[in-house]
Amino acid sequence: PPEKRWLAEATPVWRRLASNSSAEAADLLAPGAILEAVQAFAAGRIGSSMLWRVLNLEMWLRGSAGREPLA
User: Which of 11, 23, 55, 58 could be joined to 29 by an S-S link, Cβ 3.0–4.6 Å?
Assistant: First the structure.
């Protein structure tokens, strides 16, 4: 699927998001959960749909809080 390639190509962006997570700060995800998901996807331990859900939660929270979703 195209999202698998897109998610893999954007790994540096996801790592940056993981370093300052709104979802983790709001206790919606455990500390380090986004980075763990990014690493698990890169290693083939989880599929693109799981990573997509985690990243969408993060970007939605950032957008709803007035933050730049990908900053």
Answer: 23
